[in-house]
Specification:
There is one protein chain. This protein has 233 residues and is an alpha/beta fold. The chain has one domain: 3-Layer(aba) Sandwich (Rossmann fold), CATH 3.40.50.1580. A hairpin with a 6-residue loop joins strand 2 and strand 3. The chain is globular. The chain binds hypoxanthine (HPA). Hypoxanthine binds next to strand 5, strand 8 and strand 9.
């Protein structure tokens, strides 16, 4: 047990998929895993371990934002021996050619700062995805016929962003989409020699203002989970 995770030693698989929302973790476990078992519910942050195609996998919520994800990623890796962490989540498109329901494989993530930033003093660390996971996810997306993009994203600290000038610069520099967790996930994984990848579906569009309805959200979430699982094994 750790401060934030009630699982017993051995309850967590080496591969962990991390949606932001704990109820999504439950839905993914019930929809995709054989014999899912609840291994954590501290503070309502649900984690389940089961198997997918015979491979042991844990689905564990991260919460919203980098400070929350950082707590779970640190404890999963350092205390439970997780070796592969794949974030599955939603994002807002920042490019006109990136549409609703498209999948994004995050090669890197810009940020104003992460919970790890102070470690680097004046340095800007460049967080990056694990190449083997990224290339396998691209193959999985190719073979499923899903529209997808590989590139940089923006891990923001604010959902209700007052700094439109900042977003405009990132858009101008080709940033595909905004979410709130990946820069810290990649940094924590790098620090502890673990592998990490973020797979996202576009749930809203910053330029057009469009949003997915709840049915489309669930369907596109399922496509993304399949890609993440196929990347992992
Ligand atoms: N901003 C930040 N995070 C997000 C968004 C957004 O528009 N959509 C989904 N996650």
């Amino acid at each position: 047990m750790t401060i934030h995770i009630g699982a017993k030693p051995g309850d967590i698989a080496e591969t962990v998929l991390m949606p932001g929302d704990p109820k999504r973790a439950k839905w993914v476990a019930q929809t995709f895993l054989d014999n899912p078992v609840l291994v954590n519910d501290v503070r309502g942050m649900l984690g389940f371990t089961g198997t997918w195609n015979g491979n042991r996998v844990t689905i564990h919520g991260s919460g919203m934002g980098m400070p929350s994800l950082s707590i779970y990623a640190n404890e999963l890796i350092r205390d439970y021996g997780a070796k592969t962490l794949i974030r599955i989540g939603s994002c807002g498109s920042m490019q006109s050619h990136v549409g609703l329901r498209d999948v994004i494989l995050a090669q890197t993530a810009s940020s104003v700062g992460t919970p790890s930033s102070s470690l680097f003093r004046e340095m800007n660390f460049a967080p990056c995805a694990d190449w083997a996971l990224l290339s396998k996810a691209a193959q999985a997306a190719d073979s499923s016929g899903t529209r997808y993009h590989v590139g940089g994203i923006y891990s923001s600290d604010t959902f209700y962003d007052e700094r439109s000038d900042l977003t405009e610069q990132l858009t101008r520099h080709g940033t595909l989409a905004v979410e709130m967790e990946t820069a810290e996930l990649y940094t924590v994984a790098a620090r502890h020699n673990a592998r990490a990848l973020t797979v996202l579906t576009v749930s809203d569009h910053l330029i057009t203002g469009e949003e997915l309805d709840s049915y489309a959200r669930e369907q596109s979430f399922a496509d993304m989970v399949e890609i993440a699982l196929r990347a992992a094994f």
